[in-house]
From TrEMBL:
Similarity comment: family membership: Belongs to the UPF0065 (bug) family.
Gene3D superfamilies named among the record's database cross-references: Bordetella uptake gene, domain 1, Periplasmic binding protein-like II
SUPFAM superfamilies the UniProt entry points to: Periplasmic binding protein-like II
Signal peptide: 1-27
Lineage, uppermost ranks: Bacteria, Pseudomonadati, Pseudomonadota, Alphaproteobacteria, Acetobacterales
Organism whose genome encodes this protein: Roseococcus pinisoli
Protein's recorded name: Tripartite tricarboxylate transporter substrate binding protein
Xref: Pfam families: TctC
Keyword entries, A-Z: Signal
The keyword Iron appears for this protein: no
Amino acid sequence: MNRRQMLAVSAALPASLASPLASPAIAQTFDRPFRLVVPFAPGGTSDILGRILAPELTRLLGQNVVVENRSGAAGNLGAQLVAQSNPDGQAILLIDTGVLATAPSLYTRLPFDPSKDLAPVNLLIYAPYILAVHPSVPARNAAELVAYAKANPNRINVANSGVGAANHLTSLMLAGHWGAEVTQVPYRGGAAALSAVTGGEAQLIVNGATATAPFVKDGRLRGIAVSGPRRFADLPDLPTFTELGWPAGDSGTWQGALVQGATPAPIIARLDQAFRAALAVPDVARRMAELGAEVRAIGPAEFRTWLATETETWGQVVRANNVRLD
Protein backbone atom coordinates (compact mmCIF):
# COMPACT_ATOMS: atom_id res chain seq x y z
CA MET A 1 0.00 0.00 0.00
CA ASN A 2 1.53 3.33 -0.99
CA ARG A 3 1.30 6.55 0.99
CA ARG A 4 -1.60 8.03 -0.94
CA GLN A 5 -3.61 4.82 -0.78
CA MET A 6 -3.05 4.50 2.94
CA LEU A 7 -4.21 8.06 3.54
CA ALA A 8 -7.23 7.98 1.25
CA VAL A 9 -9.49 7.49 4.22
CA SER A 10 -13.02 8.74 3.91
CA ALA A 11 -14.31 11.38 6.29
CA ALA A 12 -17.59 9.45 6.35
CA LEU A 13 -16.97 7.21 9.35
CA PRO A 14 -19.30 4.39 10.38
CA ALA A 15 -22.40 5.57 12.15
CA SER A 16 -21.56 3.36 15.13
CA LEU A 17 -18.66 5.67 15.95
CA ALA A 18 -20.81 8.77 16.06
CA SER A 19 -22.52 7.86 19.32
CA PRO A 20 -20.74 7.85 22.69
CA LEU A 21 -22.96 4.92 23.76
CA ALA A 22 -22.28 2.76 20.71
CA SER A 23 -18.90 1.47 21.85
CA PRO A 24 -18.29 -0.17 25.25
CA ALA A 25 -14.66 0.92 24.95
CA ILE A 26 -15.65 4.58 24.93
CA ALA A 27 -18.29 4.07 27.60
CA GLN A 28 -15.67 2.90 30.11
CA THR A 29 -14.68 5.67 32.48
CA PHE A 30 -11.37 7.37 33.21
CA ASP A 31 -10.52 8.61 36.70
CA ARG A 32 -9.55 12.23 36.07
CA PRO A 33 -9.56 15.01 33.42
CA PHE A 34 -7.48 14.70 30.27
CA ARG A 35 -4.75 17.14 29.24
CA LEU A 36 -4.79 17.78 25.50
CA VAL A 37 -1.29 19.17 25.15
CA VAL A 38 -0.81 21.56 22.23
CA PRO A 39 2.92 22.35 21.96
CA PHE A 40 2.37 25.74 20.35
CA ALA A 41 0.91 29.09 21.33
CA PRO A 42 -2.85 29.71 20.97
CA GLY A 43 -4.14 30.54 17.50
CA GLY A 44 -2.27 27.98 15.40
CA THR A 45 -3.71 24.97 13.59
CA SER A 46 -3.14 22.51 16.45
CA ASP A 47 -4.75 24.89 18.94
CA ILE A 48 -7.77 25.53 16.70
CA LEU A 49 -8.27 21.79 16.17
CA GLY A 50 -7.88 21.03 19.86
CA ARG A 51 -10.49 23.55 20.91
CA ILE A 52 -12.96 22.21 18.35
CA LEU A 53 -12.47 18.61 19.46
CA ALA A 54 -12.20 19.09 23.23
CA PRO A 55 -15.97 19.45 23.96
CA GLU A 56 -16.81 16.33 21.94
CA LEU A 57 -13.98 14.34 23.51
CA THR A 58 -15.23 15.43 26.94
CA ARG A 59 -18.65 14.04 26.10
CA LEU A 60 -17.27 10.81 24.65
CA LEU A 61 -14.70 10.04 27.33
CA GLY A 62 -16.74 11.07 30.36
CA GLN A 63 -14.06 13.40 31.71
CA ASN A 64 -13.14 17.00 30.98
CA VAL A 65 -10.62 17.37 28.18
CA VAL A 66 -8.65 20.56 28.74
CA VAL A 67 -6.44 22.14 26.07
CA GLU A 68 -3.03 22.97 27.54
CA ASN A 69 -0.69 25.13 25.45
CA ARG A 70 2.96 24.28 26.12
CA SER A 71 4.96 26.13 23.48
CA GLY A 72 8.72 26.12 23.14
CA ALA A 73 11.60 24.43 21.31
CA ALA A 74 9.62 24.36 18.03
CA GLY A 75 7.02 22.03 19.55
CA ASN A 76 9.44 19.67 21.25
CA LEU A 77 8.79 21.01 24.75
CA GLY A 78 5.16 19.88 24.72
CA ALA A 79 6.10 16.62 23.02
CA GLN A 80 8.67 15.94 25.73
CA LEU A 81 6.08 16.65 28.43
CA VAL A 82 3.82 13.91 27.04
CA ALA A 83 6.74 11.56 26.33
CA GLN A 84 7.70 11.74 30.00
CA SER A 85 4.15 11.60 31.41
CA ASN A 86 2.48 8.62 33.04
CA PRO A 87 1.57 5.88 30.55
CA ASP A 88 -2.14 6.12 31.28
CA GLY A 89 -3.40 8.01 28.23
CA GLN A 90 -4.51 11.04 30.25
CA ALA A 91 -1.92 13.34 28.67
CA ILE A 92 -2.54 13.49 24.92
CA LEU A 93 -0.23 15.29 22.50
CA LEU A 94 -1.99 17.06 19.63
CA ILE A 95 0.70 18.14 17.22
CA ASP A 96 1.62 18.93 13.65
CA THR A 97 3.38 15.65 13.01
CA GLY A 98 6.05 17.40 10.95
CA VAL A 99 7.65 18.33 14.28
CA LEU A 100 8.11 14.66 15.17
CA ALA A 101 9.20 13.74 11.65
CA THR A 102 11.96 16.38 11.47
CA ALA A 103 13.25 16.43 15.06
CA PRO A 104 15.46 13.29 14.81
CA SER A 105 17.38 14.85 11.91
CA LEU A 106 17.53 18.37 13.35
CA TYR A 107 18.92 17.50 16.77
CA THR A 108 21.97 15.43 17.61
CA ARG A 109 20.35 14.57 20.93
CA LEU A 110 16.70 14.81 21.92
CA PRO A 111 15.45 14.34 25.48
CA PHE A 112 13.00 11.79 24.10
CA ASP A 113 12.78 9.35 21.20
CA PRO A 114 9.67 10.10 19.12
CA SER A 115 9.54 6.53 17.80
CA LYS A 116 9.69 4.92 21.25
CA ASP A 117 8.52 7.44 23.84
CA LEU A 118 5.35 8.46 22.01
CA ALA A 119 2.63 6.06 20.88
CA PRO A 120 0.46 7.07 17.89
CA VAL A 121 -3.29 7.18 18.51
CA ASN A 122 -4.74 8.62 15.33
CA LEU A 123 -3.70 10.80 12.42
CA LEU A 124 -6.60 13.24 12.54
CA ILE A 125 -6.63 15.77 9.72
CA TYR A 126 -4.69 17.12 6.80
CA ALA A 127 -4.83 20.79 5.84
CA PRO A 128 -2.93 22.15 2.85
CA TYR A 129 -0.49 25.00 3.09
CA ILE A 130 -1.39 28.42 1.79
CA LEU A 131 1.47 30.52 0.46
CA ALA A 132 0.49 34.11 1.11
CA VAL A 133 2.16 37.53 1.11
CA HIS A 134 1.60 40.83 2.83
CA PRO A 135 -0.46 43.16 0.60
CA SER A 136 2.52 45.50 0.29
CA VAL A 137 4.39 42.93 -1.81
CA PRO A 138 4.00 43.98 -5.48
CA ALA A 139 2.97 40.54 -6.69
CA ARG A 140 -0.56 39.37 -7.37
CA ASN A 141 0.20 35.88 -8.67
CA ALA A 142 2.87 33.20 -8.62
CA ALA A 143 4.78 34.41 -11.68
CA GLU A 144 4.99 37.97 -10.34
CA LEU A 145 6.09 36.72 -6.92
CA VAL A 146 8.91 34.61 -8.35
CA ALA A 147 10.05 37.49 -10.56
CA TYR A 148 10.02 39.91 -7.63
CA ALA A 149 11.88 37.51 -5.33
CA LYS A 150 14.59 36.90 -7.94
CA ALA A 151 14.97 40.61 -8.68
CA ASN A 152 15.17 41.57 -5.00
CA PRO A 153 17.53 39.17 -3.20
CA ASN A 154 16.77 38.87 0.52
CA ARG A 155 14.14 41.62 0.38
CA ILE A 156 11.46 39.08 1.31
CA ASN A 157 11.37 37.94 4.91
CA VAL A 158 9.71 34.52 5.13
CA ALA A 159 8.03 33.88 8.48
CA ASN A 160 7.99 30.27 9.65
CA SER A 161 6.88 28.50 12.81
CA GLY A 162 10.42 27.52 13.82
CA VAL A 163 13.70 26.35 12.34
CA GLY A 164 13.22 22.90 10.90
CA ALA A 165 9.43 23.06 10.97
CA ALA A 166 7.78 21.53 7.93
CA ASN A 167 6.65 24.94 6.66
CA HIS A 168 10.22 26.22 7.01
CA LEU A 169 11.58 23.31 4.99
CA THR A 170 8.82 23.70 2.41
CA SER A 171 9.65 27.38 1.90
CA LEU A 172 13.34 26.46 1.55
CA MET A 173 12.44 24.00 -1.18
CA LEU A 174 10.29 26.59 -2.96
CA ALA A 175 12.89 29.36 -2.84
CA GLY A 176 15.52 26.94 -4.14
CA HIS A 177 13.24 25.96 -7.00
CA TRP A 178 12.59 29.62 -7.84
CA GLY A 179 16.31 30.42 -7.78
CA ALA A 180 15.59 33.23 -5.34
CA GLU A 181 17.34 34.36 -2.17
CA VAL A 182 14.96 35.04 0.71
CA THR A 183 15.48 35.61 4.42
CA GLN A 184 14.04 32.96 6.71
CA VAL A 185 12.71 34.31 10.02
CA PRO A 186 11.66 31.76 12.66
CA TYR A 187 8.90 32.46 15.17
CA ARG A 188 7.47 30.53 18.09
CA GLY A 189 4.69 28.79 16.24
CA GLY A 190 2.41 29.46 13.30
CA ALA A 191 0.24 32.03 15.10
CA ALA A 192 3.26 34.24 15.82
CA ALA A 193 4.44 33.86 12.22
CA LEU A 194 1.01 34.86 10.92
CA SER A 195 1.01 37.89 13.18
CA ALA A 196 4.39 38.92 11.82
CA VAL A 197 3.21 38.81 8.21
CA THR A 198 -0.15 40.49 8.79
CA GLY A 199 1.73 43.21 10.68
CA GLY A 200 4.24 43.73 7.86
CA GLU A 201 7.25 42.57 9.88
CA ALA A 202 7.66 39.72 7.38
CA GLN A 203 6.40 39.55 3.81
CA LEU A 204 5.67 35.89 3.03
CA ILE A 205 4.40 32.82 4.82
CA VAL A 206 3.73 29.18 4.02
CA ASN A 207 1.30 27.97 6.66
CA GLY A 208 -1.63 25.67 7.33
CA ALA A 209 -4.87 26.67 5.60
CA THR A 210 -6.88 26.15 8.78
CA ALA A 211 -5.18 29.10 10.44
CA THR A 212 -4.25 31.14 7.35
CA ALA A 213 -7.37 31.16 5.17
CA PRO A 214 -9.32 33.67 7.32
CA PHE A 215 -6.56 36.25 6.85
CA VAL A 216 -6.60 35.74 3.09
CA LYS A 217 -10.38 35.97 2.94
CA ASP A 218 -10.49 39.29 4.82
CA GLY A 219 -7.66 40.83 2.82
CA ARG A 220 -5.00 41.04 5.50
CA LEU A 221 -2.95 38.64 3.38
CA ARG A 222 -2.86 38.01 -0.36
CA GLY A 223 -3.04 34.34 -1.29
CA ILE A 224 -0.71 33.14 -4.03
CA ALA A 225 -0.88 29.33 -4.12
CA VAL A 226 -1.85 26.24 -2.14
CA SER A 227 -0.34 22.81 -1.61
CA GLY A 228 -2.36 19.62 -1.69
CA PRO A 229 -4.00 17.52 -4.38
CA ARG A 230 -6.65 20.07 -5.35
CA ARG A 231 -7.48 23.75 -5.16
CA PHE A 232 -8.76 25.09 -1.87
CA ALA A 233 -12.56 25.20 -2.06
CA ASP A 234 -12.96 28.61 -0.39
CA LEU A 235 -10.14 30.17 -2.43
CA PRO A 236 -10.63 28.54 -5.84
CA ASP A 237 -8.56 31.10 -7.75
CA LEU A 238 -5.34 30.01 -6.07
CA PRO A 239 -3.43 27.42 -8.14
CA THR A 240 -1.81 24.42 -6.48
CA PHE A 241 1.95 24.01 -6.19
CA THR A 242 1.67 21.08 -8.58
CA GLU A 243 -0.16 23.15 -11.20
CA LEU A 244 2.68 25.67 -11.02
CA GLY A 245 5.35 22.99 -11.33
CA TRP A 246 6.63 23.72 -7.83
CA PRO A 247 8.01 21.09 -5.44
CA ALA A 248 6.39 20.01 -2.14
CA GLY A 249 3.01 19.53 -3.77
CA ASP A 250 1.81 17.19 -1.02
CA SER A 251 3.18 19.24 1.86
CA GLY A 252 0.82 20.62 4.47
CA THR A 253 -0.06 20.32 8.12
CA TRP A 254 -0.82 16.79 9.28
CA GLN A 255 -2.32 16.88 12.76
CA GLY A 256 -2.10 13.78 14.92
CA ALA A 257 -2.72 12.61 18.49
CA LEU A 258 -0.16 10.62 20.49
CA VAL A 259 0.29 9.46 24.06
CA GLN A 260 3.18 8.25 26.21
CA GLY A 261 4.97 5.37 24.51
CA ALA A 262 4.24 2.70 27.12
CA THR A 263 0.50 3.36 27.25
CA PRO A 264 -1.39 0.03 27.11
CA ALA A 265 -2.95 -0.86 23.77
CA PRO A 266 -6.55 -1.02 25.12
CA ILE A 267 -6.32 2.61 26.30
CA ILE A 268 -4.91 3.69 22.94
CA ALA A 269 -7.78 1.86 21.22
CA ARG A 270 -10.34 3.69 23.37
CA LEU A 271 -8.78 7.06 22.57
CA ASP A 272 -8.60 6.17 18.87
CA GLN A 273 -12.34 5.42 18.86
CA ALA A 274 -13.12 8.64 20.71
CA PHE A 275 -11.19 10.79 18.22
CA ARG A 276 -12.88 9.04 15.29
CA ALA A 277 -16.30 9.60 16.85
CA ALA A 278 -15.54 13.26 17.57
CA LEU A 279 -14.44 13.87 13.98
CA ALA A 280 -17.65 12.24 12.73
CA VAL A 281 -19.92 14.64 14.64
CA PRO A 282 -21.69 16.66 11.91
CA ASP A 283 -20.88 20.07 13.40
CA VAL A 284 -17.21 19.13 13.80
CA ALA A 285 -17.07 17.79 10.24
CA ARG A 286 -18.67 21.01 8.98
CA ARG A 287 -16.15 23.17 10.82
CA MET A 288 -13.28 21.08 9.53
CA ALA A 289 -14.51 21.57 5.96
CA GLU A 290 -14.91 25.31 6.48
CA LEU A 291 -11.30 25.48 7.65
CA GLY A 292 -10.05 23.56 4.65
CA ALA A 293 -9.16 20.44 6.62
CA GLU A 294 -9.74 16.88 5.46
CA VAL A 295 -10.31 14.10 7.98
CA ARG A 296 -7.56 11.48 7.69
CA ALA A 297 -8.52 9.12 10.50
CA ILE A 298 -6.15 6.17 10.43
CA GLY A 299 -5.52 3.93 13.41
CA PRO A 300 -2.43 3.51 15.58
CA ALA A 301 -0.63 0.92 13.44
CA GLU A 302 -1.11 2.75 10.15
CA PHE A 303 -0.18 6.04 11.81
CA ARG A 304 3.08 4.55 13.11
CA THR A 305 4.01 3.32 9.62
CA TRP A 306 3.11 6.67 8.07
CA LEU A 307 5.17 8.59 10.64
CA ALA A 308 8.22 6.41 10.00
CA THR A 309 7.96 7.16 6.27
CA GLU A 310 7.57 10.90 6.91
CA THR A 311 10.59 10.90 9.23
CA GLU A 312 12.76 9.44 6.48
CA THR A 313 11.35 11.79 3.81
CA TRP A 314 11.81 14.99 5.83
CA GLY A 315 15.18 13.78 7.08
CA GLN A 316 16.39 13.83 3.50
CA VAL A 317 15.20 17.44 3.11
CA VAL A 318 16.88 18.48 6.36
CA ARG A 319 20.18 16.93 5.32
CA ALA A 320 20.00 18.35 1.80
CA ASN A 321 19.58 21.87 3.19
CA ASN A 322 22.10 21.38 6.01
CA VAL A 323 19.61 22.50 8.67
CA ARG A 324 20.75 21.86 12.24
CA LEU A 325 19.57 23.04 15.63
CA ASP A 326 22.49 21.86 17.77
